[in-house]
Structure formats: structure tokens, C-alpha cells
């Protein structure tokens, strides 16, 4: 069905405002917390430039203060925007703007985590099909052998997710430590890969996401991205495919408005989100 050229998907309009990610916007829509010109909405609905979008009765208005942050996440901090979760990353940072994480880093892991209120760039980065690299340094409980490196780099079956990991770059750094560069974001991917080969991960640190490097940023500290880092990041995702998300549990594409029924999906708080406001999106046919 043809859409008006000035319209945009409702979840994208909410996400672009900086209110939350596109996935979280879908959850808000499913929960009946979003209205369009005072009327209830459904997944996949679209908005025009002058439409009035509200979440929990709060108007989504323009966000002119985009934030891009690199955090060195400590072990024990959970990547969620659900403020009911103790040790959530949002309260840990305590930023004045409503920001959300780009992808995840599991609770027992540490290292680089990007956070922003730019919903558009989040959606582009999260698309596994764009082959954006993420680099990790991993210590395991056994010697890193040549066979281990070969099998890890060739692809490991993950029964729980009914998929096999894509080929990746793996390099031994010492007897117990290796470097791995992934272009996927499967849940607990590295830990599951190691477990399949009877290895146990002792420490896991992410040191790079695309062109952004952790460097000497101290654990628990964060910094704003530099002008060059941000421009290079935007350049690298400029041609990103916006047509569909990649389901991280199955590695299959599905429409972005389809509900993700996976236990690994973050819960959205059912309390009002205390937004400082989002944005009345100027509709464009680029969703």
C-alpha cells in the first residue's frame, strides 16, 4: 500500500525524537500508551508532519540536544532503561538528557558502551546486516590453542538460538587471552561460543565499536564522542539498510513493526517515563 511521501512510521517518529529506541516505541504502542491526534494507534501506523503524538499524555516535541556518549561500563551494571532494575545503566550515568544504550553488553562484562538520544543512528548501528565491527578482549580458563582459534573463527552452532555464528576474526594475545572481532550481536554470543568448546570466560571486555575505541577511559567513566568520531560514525552508517531489523536470536530479518517475542527483549517500564519531551517529527518517506 502506498504511503503519503511526507509520512513516517510512528515508532520512528518517537525514536527520532530521542524519547526512546524504536523497539521501545513499539512496546509503548503495544501497551496502548501512545496516541496520534488523541486516537489509539497500532504497530505500523504512520504520522504526518503536523500530527500530535503523545506518550502517556505527554506531547512528543522536538529534541534539539542530541547526545553521543562513550561509557566504560563496569561489571555489574545492567544495560536497560528500565529504572526498576537495580544497577541500570541510565541511573548509573545520571545524565540530564534521556539517553539509551546502543546494543547491549551483558552484566558480567565490561567495556565500551555507546549511549545516545539519537534514535535514528541507534537503529542503523544495530542492524547486523551492515557488518559493523565490535572488538573484544577475552580471558578464558584454558590455554588458547590453534584449534580453538580455528573453530571460533569458522562459526559455532548455538542451539538455544537455532543458528550458527558468522565467521569472525580471532587472534591469540597470550596463553589465556584472545581478541575477537564480531559483526553480530547475538545474546551472550562470545560466552556461548566458548562454552560450546568447553571453555569458560573469566573476563570479557569490549574495546571497540566500529570506529569508536575505548582507549584509556577509566572503568565507570564516560565521555562525549569527539567531532571526528561522530562524523566518521555517521558516515559509516549513512547507507545502512532501514528496511528491516535483524532478530538477534534467530539472525533472521523481520518487519520492524513486528513484535519481538523473545525472553531477551528488555522490559519497558509501565510507569510514566518522565520525559523532558521528544519531538513532533517532520515526516519523511525514509523509514
Question: What keyword list fits this structure?
Answer:
19 strands, nine-stranded mixed sheet, 287 residues, disordered C terminus, four-stranded antiparallel sheet, alpha+beta
Write the layout of secondary structure elements.
Blueprint: E1 8-9, H1 10-16, H2 22-30, E2 34-36, E3 39-40, E4 46-47, E5 53-55, E6 58-59, E7 68-73, H3 89-93, E8 100-101, E9 110-116, H4 119-125, E10 134-140, H5 146-154, E11 157-158, E12 163-164, E13 169-172, E14 177-182, H6 189-196, E15 201-209, E16 212-213, E17 222-224, H7 227-236, E18 245-247, E19 252-254
Parallel strand pairs: 9-15
Antiparallel strand pairs: 1-4, 2-3, 2-5, 5-6, 7-9, 7-17, 8-9, 10-14, 10-15, 11-12, 13-14, 15-16, 18-19
Helix pairs in contact: 1-2
What does this structure look like?
The chain has 287 residues and is α+β, with helices and mostly antiparallel strands. The protein has seven helices and 19 strands. Strands 7, 8, 9, 10, 13, 14, 15, 16 and 17 form a nine-stranded mixed β-sheet that branches. The longest helix is centred in the C-terminal third of the chain and has 10 residues.
The outline comes out as elongated
Radius of gyration (CA) equals 20 Å
Sheet bearing the most strands, described?
Answer: 9 strands, mixed
| Number of helices, where a helix is a run of at least 4 consecutive DSSP H or I residues | 7
Number of strands: 19
Q: Termini, distance in Å?
A: 15 Å
The averaged pLDDT comes out at 82
Main structural class: alpha+beta
Low-confidence stretches: 243-287
Strand content: 15-25%
Give the topology string: H per helix, E per strand: EHHEEEEEEHEEHEHEEEEHEEEHEE
Please give the share of residues in helix.
10-25%
Amino acid at each position: 500500500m502506498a504511503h503519503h511521501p511526507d509520512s513516517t512510521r510512528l515508532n520512528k517518529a518517537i525514536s527520532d525524537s530521542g524519547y526512546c529506541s524504536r523497539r521501545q516505541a513499539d512496546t509503548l504502542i503495544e501497551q496502548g500508551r501512545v496516541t496520534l491526534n488523541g486516537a489509539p494507534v497500532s504497530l505500523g501506523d504512520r504520522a504526518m508532519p503536523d500530527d500530535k503524538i503523545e506518550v502517556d499524555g505527554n506531547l512528543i516535541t522536538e529534541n534539539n540536544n542530541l547526545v553521543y556518549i562513550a561509557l566504560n561500563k563496569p561489571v555489574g551494571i545492567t544495560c536497560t532503561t528500565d529504572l526498576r532494575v537495580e544497577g541500570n545503566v541510565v541511573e548509573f550515568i545520571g545524565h540530564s538528557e534521556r539517553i539509551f544504550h546502543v546494543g547491549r553488553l551483558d552484566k558480567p562484562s565490561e567495556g565500551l558502551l555507546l549511549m545516545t538520544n539519537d534514535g535514528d543512528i541507534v537503529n542503523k548501528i544495530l542492524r547486523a546486516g551492515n557488518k559493523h565491527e565490535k572488538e573484544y578482549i577475552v580471558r578464558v580458563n584454558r590455554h588458547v590453542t590453534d584449534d580453538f582459534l580455528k573453530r571460533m573463527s569458522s562459526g559455532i552452532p548455538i542451539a538455544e538460538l537455532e543458528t550458527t555464528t558468522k565467521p569472525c576474526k580471532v587472534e591469540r594475545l597470550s596463553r589465556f587471552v584472545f581478541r575477537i572481532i564480531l559483526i553480530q550481536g547475538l545474546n551472550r554470543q562470545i560466552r556461548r561460543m566458548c562454552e560450546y568448546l568447553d571453555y569458560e570466560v573469566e573476563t570479557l571486555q569490549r574495546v571497540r565499536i566500529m570506529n569508536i575505541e575505548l582507549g584509556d577511559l577509566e572503568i565507570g567513566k564516560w565521555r562525549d564522542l569527539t567531532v571526528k568520531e561522530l562524523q566518521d560514525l555517521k558516515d559509516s552508517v549513512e547507507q545502512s539498510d532501514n528496511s528491516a531489523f535483524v532478530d538477534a536470536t534467530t539472525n533472521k530479518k523481520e518487519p520492524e513493526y513486528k513484535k519481538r517475542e523473545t525472553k531477551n527483549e528488555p522490559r519497558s517500564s509501565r510507569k510514566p517515563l518522565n520525559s523532558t519531551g521528544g519531538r513532533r517529527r517532520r515526516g519523511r518517506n525514509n523509514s
